Amino acid sequence: MPVANDAPGVDIEGTDADAESGDLPINELFQSLQGEGRLAGVPSVFVRTSGCNLRCWFCDSYHTSWEPTHDWFTVDDVIAAIEEYDANHVVLTGGEPLIHDSSEDLLERLADRGYHTTVETNGTVVPDAPIDLASVSPKLASSTPTPERDPDGDGEWADRHEERRLDVPTLANLVETYDTQLKFVVTGREDMAEIERLVEQLRDTASTRVRDDDVLLMPEGQTRDQLEATRKAVADLALEYGYRYTPRLHVDLWNDAPGT
Ligand SMILES: C[S@@+](CC[C@H](N)C(=O)[O-])C[C@H]1O[C@@H](n2cnc3c(N)ncnc32)[C@H](O)[C@@H]1O
Ligand SMILES: Nc1nc2[nH]cc(C(=O)O)c2c(=O)[nH]1
Ligand code: SF4
Ligand SMILES: [Mg+2]
């Protein structure tokens, strides 16, 4: 279900404009196959909130981060829209879904109804809510929107993005609280040193184990053509480092069209 654009009141900074109303800014809600990660191929309903606290230059959901658009839904409306589909799996994504307090309410109510929930998150926020799979995608230095890579300006977001993108105690808290996969967007071999360092820091900090199988390398690419150019090198890196590779099935199948 594509939802209305240019609705008023978007909170691009990701503070709690929605906290009082309890509503959620929804960019799109649709059924597809989970395209990424451990559950790739599983039919799922996707709930995409709008607004993000980061600005990755490569963001494949531009209209939830750089130029957010959405319609306001009550949590009841979101549940009703999900129930229209015959699915057991719900993926809450964005934007950054965990900047919205009402995402916690939604996750509680989905758990009460027996849904399996995956949350796609950048790993900067720890919620107080049940989640079956925390699909955490920590943002590497290569994601920073430098002036040369800014899709929307001259690097105005670079410092804020850089300050916020990684916080090891927050990541460790997520890993300890939830069944977690760490899904890194890989732009090239240059990213591997930072991934190795971060995994090591997490192993030193978190009280639960981080297995190599929980670390997934995902090729950067918003289109089929871009992925064609990156995926082989990233698959080779996964083999070399002993981590897992994840495809982006929805890009291969549908070129990441809206609603897929
Ligand atoms: C749009 S984000 C929304 C959730 C959350 N903000 C995050 O970044 O994890 C959903 C997933 O797409 C990934 N992603 C975004 N742009 C991408 C790109 N150009 N290539 C590969 N993965 C990308 C993110 O890293 C994340 O795993
Ligand atoms: N099919 C499909 N799978 C996905 N897995 C994570 C997605 C996301 O944007 O978070 C996504 C998406 O947008 N589409
Ligand atoms: S954190 Fe996620 S939604 Fe936000 S800009 Fe990066 S990829 Fe896009
Ligand atoms: Mg996506």
From TrEMBL:
Cofactor: Mg(2+); S-adenosyl-L-methionine; [4Fe-4S] cluster
Region (Disordered): 1-21, 136-161
Biased composition (Basic and acidic residues): 147-161
CDD domains with a match to the protein in the record: Radical_SAM
Keywords of this entry: 4Fe-4S, Iron, Iron-sulfur, Lyase, Magnesium, Metal-binding, S-adenosyl-L-methionine
Function: Catalyzes the complex heterocyclic radical-mediated conversion of 6-carboxy-5,6,7,8-tetrahydropterin (CPH4) to 7-carboxy-7-deazaguanine (CDG), a step common to the biosynthetic pathways of all 7-deazapurine-containing compounds.
E.C. numbers: 4.3.99.3
Keyword Iron-sulfur recorded: yes
Keyword Iron carried by entry: yes
Residue ranges occupied by any Radical SAM core domain in the UniProt entry: 39-256
Residues at which [4Fe-4S] cluster binds: C52, C56, C59
Domain of life: Archaea
UniProt xrefs under Gene3D superfamilies: Aldolase class I
Cofactor binding summary note: Binds 1 S-adenosyl-L-methionine per subunit.
Enzyme class: lyase
Protein name according to UniProt: 7-carboxy-7-deazaguanine synthase
Residue numbers binding S-adenosyl-L-methionine: F58, C59, D60, G95, S137, P138, K139
Pathway assigned in UniProt: Purine metabolism; 7-cyano-7-deazaguanine biosynthesis
UniProt-recorded Gene Ontology molecular function terms: 4 iron, 4 sulfur cluster binding; carbon-nitrogen lyase activity; magnesium ion binding; S-adenosyl-L-methionine binding
Record family assignment: Belongs to the radical SAM superfamily. 7-carboxy-7-deazaguanine synthase family.
Residues that bind Mg(2+): S61
Subunit structure: Homodimer.
Protein residues bound to substrate: L33, Q34, G35, R48, T93
Catalytic activity: 6-carboxy-5,6,7,8-tetrahydropterin + H(+) = 7-carboxy-7-carbaguanine + NH4(+)
Matching InterPro entries: 7-CO-7-deazaguanine_synth-like, Aldolase_TIM, rSAM, rSAM_sf
